[in-house]
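How it folds:
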Amino acid sequence: MNANTDRVAPEGARDRVAPEGARDRVAPEGARDRVAPEGARDRVALVTGAARGIGAACAAKLATLGHPVVLADVIPEVEGTAAALPNARAIRLDVADPAAVAALPQALDDWWERLGIVVNNAGISPKVDGRARPIREMPLEEWSRVLAVNLTGAFLVSQACIPPLRARRWGRVVMMTSQAARGKSVIAAAHYAAAKTGLMGFARSLASELGPDGITVNSVAPGRIDTPMAQGAAAGVNDAFLAQIPLRRIGTPEEVAEVVAFLASDAAGYLSGATIDVGGGSFMP
């Protein structure tokens, strides 16, 4: 459905001529040759942390749109998730393992050169009895592991995927950050908030670097979403959080996936370096 097709131009609009000079502007070198691949079937999507929750929903949405999808995760469940989707493959991947990430071209095999979409969704959020661990009690090992998965993992995967995206001069990279990066959080611990905040900064830097190659990089910041991670919170935590959400409900992974699918589409071709909040109004800049 396209509401624009039935609109009538305002009186005089059809006679408007581009300002003098605009008609003579030349597109930057290479811009005229930058053509997006034809059809979703030629745009392979890689989704990390795709076994369940938001990652699984993103993979399912992209597969429904016709993209070949690679679901990557450390847990065996990813194989069953992929088996339920059309034209999907599963790979076991620890995004914090540099050697494993470096082997992505071999893991994707004949799909590697067709890679067009990267969704950095892998993340962990350790809790103690369903609650965030205080900084004063946080072991260095836990801090390091969260940053390794949630931030360094996105760096490693994005870096590895740059060559095929640059080669086709088209690409979409989406970072899954969090409302914990947007303000005070009583649910997420310091290591999770720090990693997700860093992820937004990394996305902006990457967007600046890859923009000339026709590649957009954006972040999605979900609020409270009905995922296994959220379900692991202590009793009453989610109910208490509802009072802070104007829509008075928890979101669904599918609602986040819709935004990711938009950012991965041609319709979002002029959107880069942005963070889209999907939190029912819990954060309003």
